[in-house]
Amino acid sequence: MSGQGPQRRLLGSLNGTSPATPHFELAANQTGPRCLEVSIPDGLFLSLGLVSVVENVLVVAAIAKNRNLHSPMYYFIGCLAVSDLLVSVGNVLETAVMLLVAAGTLAAQAAVVQQLDDIIDVLICGSMVSSLCFLGAIAVDRYLSIFYALRYHSIVTL
């Protein structure tokens, strides 16, 4: 790894794997069939993240703008969209920083990039937990609306 540039070493340490690892190599303590490593371009992650950001912004805007969508169920969906928006923003930021460092456009110290990566990872993990909580709240809300349909409005408005 000594022949690689500092950016490749930095990216290798951030990703947890060396960029120069062969695709078919097995670890010394593993036995069994070989697994193929699937290489997905970073541009694909960036474009999917941007699409996710746009669609979640549209969901939040639709719920905020349309008065017919101002009910508890849609508030839960809006909160879920905000949580997913934070996950998407975190993924887009992380991928953009990785691409800029790999291209040599962004010259930063390894410690700064590592701290930025840690902050983005905390944002993504926290937002994922929040998304799961809102999915649970939506499930409870749907349960109440189906099994207590006649009393749903009075239960939810409490």
Automatic annotation (TrEMBL):
G-protein coupled receptors family 1 profile domain segment(s): 55-158
CC terms in the record's Gene Ontology section: plasma membrane
Major place of residence: membrane
Lipid bilayer topology: Multi-pass membrane protein
TM stretches of this protein: 44-64, 96-113, 120-140
Keyword Transmembrane helix: yes
UniProt family annotation: Belongs to the G-protein coupled receptor 1 family.
Assembly and oligomerization: Interacts with MGRN1, but does not undergo MGRN1-mediated ubiquitination; this interaction competes with GNAS-binding and thus inhibits agonist-induced cAMP production. Interacts with OPN3; the interaction results in a decrease in MC1R-mediated cAMP signaling and ultimately a decrease in melanin production in melanocytes.
Protein's name in the database: Melanocyte-stimulating hormone receptor
Species the sequence originates in: Canis lupus familiaris
